Amino acid sequence: MIVRGFALCALLFLPVTAGFAQPKSNAIEARLQRVEDELAIRRVLVDYAAFLDGRDFARYAALFTTDGEWSNATASHKGQAAIRQMLEGTLGKPGAPNRANFHIISNPQVDLDGDHATATSRYLFVMRAPDGRPQPSLAGIYKDELVRQAGQWKIRRRVADDIMPTADEWTKIIATQAPKP
Amino acid sequence: MDEDYRDAGAQAMMQRLLAIALSLVLAMPAAAQRNETVDRAAIHALLVAYGSTLDARDFEGFGRLFGKNGVYAAGGGTEATGAAAGQMMRKIFSANTLGFREPNFHLFFNEVVTFVGPDRARATSMSLYMVPDEKNRPMAALMARYEDELVRTDDRWTFARRAVRSLIPAPAAPPSPQQP
Predict the structure, then answer these.
(1) Neighbours of B164 (CB within 10 A)
(2) Residue in B with minimal Cα distance to A109
(3) Does domain A2-175 have CATH number 3.10.450.50?
(4) Do the domain assignments include residue B178?
């Protein structure tokens, strides 16, 4: 009798799920996909800073598409190889220990459109002051175009917009200091 | 014989109702959990929009974050409701009594969101207000904590109440009753 009852429940359950749950399930899946996409893109934004500060140039370059572009007010580098070369030219050997500076990434805003997305985030570049204190030194906005390739979100184009100080001012400052990103 | 059929029919009906109830109960937690992730993303966007609208001096957009009845308690007893919050901030930024240089911006961190119902949530978060120093380097001029009550109306999350607590500079201590 109990077995028959469970079997009946199972039979009754099928029409309920087939009739009502399927469309809702699809809607939930779509919403969940958007959230997963946003989380994955936010991870890209954080990985960018972590790989840069950790001098992991290979993984940094791999965040971009093969034809990805990094640019700011003074330079543009297109393709993973060129982006990696930019880092090596500016920061030296990959994997070198770095206790001199780091990036804080904040205020991520992600807008999704299927397999494409745009994002903006704030960066605050903090340097070690002569007395060892963390000194906020450069602030700006990253403006990104991203694309999903083989299930992975990649940066197709990143524009680093230095705001405080301006790109010109920053160029003069770093000309008097040790190399930095 | 008829009674047997009636009993069997009633039993089948009961089992059907139980099965439907069971299926609904089983379906709810997963749906609720997945909705929460969507809501968390929407609330994060709201908290960031607070800063991006102010930083862009988009005071109408800022006011819309408070819906019709949301209260913005900016500290020091200053409050505004709904769109008036934007008008209040337009005046505050225009007056610039602290003499902040531009451009300046909000930097947010330590965001914690808890849900108190399907359409209600609370949040706390903190910010640094970054302004250029005399060399145009970013300098943290203010630090604040936000205490939020959030509400979903017409599928949109807005502030039902946002209270700003100044941390740095610390608010002036109330006069001690021991002192004259």
Answers:
(1) 19
(2) B45
(3) yes
(4) no
Looking at the structure of chain B, the number of domains it has is: 1
Q: What is d(CA A164, CA A140) in angstroms, rounded to the nearest whole number?
A: 6
Please determine, for the modelled complex, whether the ipTM score is greater than 0.90: no
Mean pLDDT on A3-11: 47
Looking at residue B84, which CATH number applies to its domain?
3.10.450.50
| Residue B176 resides in a domain | no
Q: Which residues pair with A71 in a beta bridge?
A: A76, A159
Range of the domain at B88: 2-168
pLDDT tens across A68-122, in order? 999 999 999 999 999 999 999 999 999 999 999 999 999 999 999 999 999 999 9
Residue B52 is assigned to a structural domain of this protein? yes
Band (pLDDT 50/70/90 cuts) for residue B33 is: low
Task: State how far the Cα of A26 lies from the Cα of B59, in Å rounded to an integer.
Answer: 38
User: Which chain A residues are within 8 Å of B18, Cβ to Cβ?
Assistant: 9
Average pLDDT, chain A: 87
Verify whether the Cβ–Cβ distance B138 to A166 is below 8 Å.
no
